[in-house]
Structures are given as C-alpha cells and as structure tokens.
Automatic annotation (TrEMBL), chain A:
Top-rank lineage group of the source organism: Bacteria
GO MF annotations in UniProt: 4-carboxymuconolactone decarboxylase activity; peroxiredoxin activity
Chain ranges of the Carboxymuconolactone decarboxylase-like domain: 23-101
Protein name: Carboxymuconolactone decarboxylase
EC number: 4.1.1.44
Gene source species: Algibacter lectus
InterPro entries with a match to the protein in the record: AhpD-like (IPR029032), AhpD_core (IPR004675), AlkhydPrxdase/COmuclacdeCOase (IPR026445), CMD-like (IPR003779)
Keywords: Lyase, Oxidoreductase, Peroxidase
Residue ranges the record marks as coiled coil: none
C-alpha cells in the first residue's frame, strides 16, 4: 500500500474507475468531456472556472490537471491567480455571509 | 536561461547516442509505455515510408544569437557548425532539379551564415513556389548589419516564419531570454511596415508557437485567435497564420525535462495524446532535411539525433529523388512529439 493518501501518478489512472462500474463510469466521462467542449463559454473560460473550483474543492489532482490545461491554452499565471481569488472570495464570502445568521441568532436569544 | 549550448557545457546530453539511450530505456524499456514502433504497428502504420518529396529543409548552421531553453538544435553563439558555399552549391543543384514545391531554410539563425544572402539570392532564382526562411526575429534587431533583412526578404519574396512563444513579455523572455520580447515586437513591426503579414498581402509572415515548458500546445486555431487579438490590440501587429508546434524530447528540451523531473510525465502526455491520423502526415513523409555539412535526414530532429536517412543516397551530392522516395523512416520515441493531439510539424498541425 502506498504510504500517502495522494499520489500524483494516480491521476493518470482516473479512467480506471470505469473498470468497476462500466456504465456509470463511461457516462460520467462522456458527460465530463461534453462539459468542457467549446459552447456558450469558450473552452478557455471553462478551464479557468475549473481551476478556481479545483482550489475551492482543494483537489490536488484537479489543481495539477487544470494548471497544465491552462498553460496549454496560453493562460498566464496572472490570469490563473485571479481566477483562484474569485474562488477564494466566494469561499470567504460564503463563510462571512453566514455571519448574518449568527447575528440573527444572537439578536433572538440575547436581544 | 542558458547562455551556453549543451555542447559547450560538455554536457552528456550533447551526445546524440546518450539522448537515444534515454529515449529507448526506462519507461519504454520496462513496458510501462509502448515504443513508437509498437504504437504505429497497432494501426498497421509501421514502417513509416517517405512519399513524394514536397519540402526540402536545409539547416545552414547551428550558430544562433539566442540560446533558448527548449532548443532542439542546441544552437547558440558558441556553435561553429556552418554550411560552406560549396555545400550550398550542391544544394542549389538539387533545388534547381527537384520537384519539391517548398524550400525551407533553418538553423540556428540562418542569417548568421556569412553566405546566407548569397544563398538566398541564388536559390530565389530557381523559382521554387514557397521559399521559407525561419527567422527568430531578434536577429533582425541584433546588429545594424541585419536591420535591412526585412527589405532583403521582400526583394526575394521570401516567406518569413518566426517563433513567438507568447503574446506577453514575461512568458516570452522566460523561454528565450531577457529582452527577446521587445526586440521581437520591434522586428514584427518592421516587417509589417513593408507589407509583411498584412491582411491580403502576398508577403507571408507566419508565427510559430511552441510551449514554454513541459506541456503540449493547445488548439492551434484558438491560439491563433488569442495571439492575433493580443498582438493587434497591444502593438498593432498583423501576421497571417500561427503554427502550434510540440516540443520534441531531444537536446536542450530533453535536458530541461530531466532536470525539472518532468520527463516521465511529459512522455505520458505525448503517448496519451497519440493520434493515429496524425501519423499519416508526419512531416518526414514529404520532407527531407539537409544538415550544415550536406548529409540527409528524415527531419531536423533526426538530424540532431544523428539518425541518417535509410537510403544509399546519404549526402546532398548523391541526391536521387527516386532512391529516396519510399525509404523507411528512421524512428524512435521522440516521434511521439509529431503525433500528439492534432500532430505537429514545421508547418504546424497535420491532422
Ligand atoms: S530555438 Fe531557434 S532562436 Fe532559439 S536557440 Fe534554437 S535556433 Fe536559436
Ligand atoms: S521526429 Fe522526424 S522521423 Fe519522427 S515522426 Fe517526426 S518527422 Fe518523422
């Protein structure tokens, strides 16, 4: 057994998940592939969204994959960092906006 | 950013046998990845055979004013391999008699060959349809004696193909050296000023994009759109087409891959992106590469790996179109670079 939870080489084996559940796995990859095709959004825009979400999800595989994908599409490091800030802003915003819930509760209990 | 060639640094990897060793051992030897031969055999495409010659690519010398990190030629100011006028004369004989429609001069920086202008003047007389010079752009601004190159190219109706790694200064200078971006922009503006690359102009100016690191090029059409938009908006520069070229794992790029521990991942990326329909049109099937000393190779990459053509005619002086047509191409694992994704050649994608 590997001694760590994450092994970079495992990313290459992602496709193997179909081996233990062919139908669902194949459907997932078909869907996944479709999502990233050029559509109303460009493939480049989707790649940047994926990079931001990869960070909020804190998935090391996705971070590796979409950093490389961005480089391949000519995305600059400034663009990548800004995209991550968008993710971070939403994450922290989502935390802080719950502060209103806390305030409501305090006001109700201790108002 | 390197300042010396691998050869000058007496690096192991300056030795082509050492490079071929690396490409044949490790993950390819232990079966983790299929060899190129096995891969193309799956679709019955082995052996790769040369078709009718269309492009004659001549490397007039490995000397260059730049020392780019990724250079597959291992070119630089310290490389002394330069084509002589005698060898050029032998090439001219072939140019005059060949059925090839494209003549492609490369290097190093071809302009640094002292007989470069003479050669262009003579070759232009042969009336070949498409006469390409691969110019690195900065050479045009490197020294006063090169300032008139755009005019010279125009006079001989040369098709200029130039490398431009990115539309931003940071990414360009990282790969090619400080100041390269500004000089390249200035050179492109000079070329535009006399009509090169302008919409509808017959003076062809194409750009070559190759990635600045251990990743593959993106979609050529999308990249071209991004390049055009950025260069137009920021610098009012026009050009015709962008060729997206994959870095092949040889010479300095191989050195970089190994040093940065990206070699295995890069080879995996290449093999994963393998596209059998690109195999049909890899450039060695219609191109012949001539080295500075007149020897014949299937492509510029094989030239750098010292893998000579598999034919009785091994030198430009023994050139024989019939003998060379149908020859088996000499392959190794670096060939995966030509068949990844939409494929890659000196003219961009092939599939
Ligand atoms: S990549 Fe081109 S410009 Fe750069 S060192 Fe090599 S030959 Fe010269
Ligand atoms: S590296 Fe050369 S020989 Fe190999 S496929 Fe590419 S062009 Fe052909």
């Amino acid at each position: 057994m590997s001694k760590t939870y994450y092994d970079p080489a495992d990313l290459r084996k992602f496709g193997k998940i179909t081996e233990w559940s062919k139908d669902l796995g194949e459907k997932f990859f078909e869907y996944y592939g479709k999502v990233f095709e050029e559509g109303a959004l460009t493939a480049r825009e989707k790649s940047l969204i994926a990079l931001a979400v990869a960070h909020t999800e804190q998935c090391p595989y996705c971070i590796d994959a979409y950093t490389k994908d961005g480089l391949q599409r000519g995305v600059t490091k400034e663009e990548m960092m800004e995209a991550i800030h968008v993710g971070a802003a939403i994450k922290s915003g989502a935390t802080l906006v719950h502060g209103v819930q806390m305030m409501n509760k305090v006001n109700k209990l201790d108002g | 950013m390197a300042t010396k060639s691998l050869k000058k640094r007496e690096s192991d990897l300056a030795n082509s046998n050492k490079q071929l060793d690396i490409l044949s051992n490790g993950i390819f030897k232990n079966g983790e990845l299929p060899t190129f031969k096995d891969k193309i055999s799956e679709t019955g495409q082995f052996p790769l055979k040369a078709k009718k010659l269309e492009i004659l690519q001549i490397n007039v010398g490995y000397m260059c004013n730049q020392v780019c990190d990724h250079c597959h030629v291992d070119a630089g100011p310290d490389r002394k391999e330069i084509m002589t006028r005698d060898t050029m004369r032998e090439c001219l004989e072939v140019i005059k008699n060949t059925g090839a429609h494209t003549l492609d001069l490369t290097g190093g920086a071809p302009e640094m060959n002292p007989d470069f202008r003479w050669f262009v003047e003579e070759a232009a007389k042969a009336g070949i349809k498409d006469f390409i010079v691969r110019s690195n752009l900065t050479i045009i601004r490197a020294n006063k004696k090169y300032y008139d190159l755009p005019e010279f190219f125009k006079k001989h109706n040369v098709h200029v193909v130039s490398s431009m790694p990115h539309w931003t200064r940071g990414k360009t200078d990282k790969q090619r050296g400080d100041g390269v971006f500004d000089k390249s922009i200035r050179a492109l503006q000079d070329l535009n000023a006399i009509g090169y690359g302008m919409p509808g102009s017959d003076l062809r100016l194409d750009l070559v994009y190759n990635p600045s690191g251990a990743f593959l090029p993106g979609d050529q059409t999308a990249m071209e759109k991004d390049f055009k938009k950025a260069l137009k908006e920021d610098f009012d520069i026009d050009f015709h087409n962008l060729f997206a070229i994959t870095n092949l794992p040889i010479a300095r790029f191989l050195d970089y891959l190994i040093a940065s521990e990206n070699y295995e991942d890069y080879m995996y990326s290449l093999v994963e992106a393998y596209n059998p329909s690109a195999v049909e049109n890899v450039m060695c099937t219609n191109t012949l590469s001539v080295s500075w000393d007149g020897y014949l190779f299937d492509c510029d990459f094989n030239q750098m790996l010292n893998l000579p053509v598999n034919s009785k005619a091994k030198h430009i002086s023994e050139y024989n179109e019939e003998l060379l047509e149908g020859r088996n191409i000499v392959i190794s694992q670096h060939c995966y670079g030509c068949t990844a994704g939409a494929g890659s050649s000196c003219q961009g994608v092939v599939a």
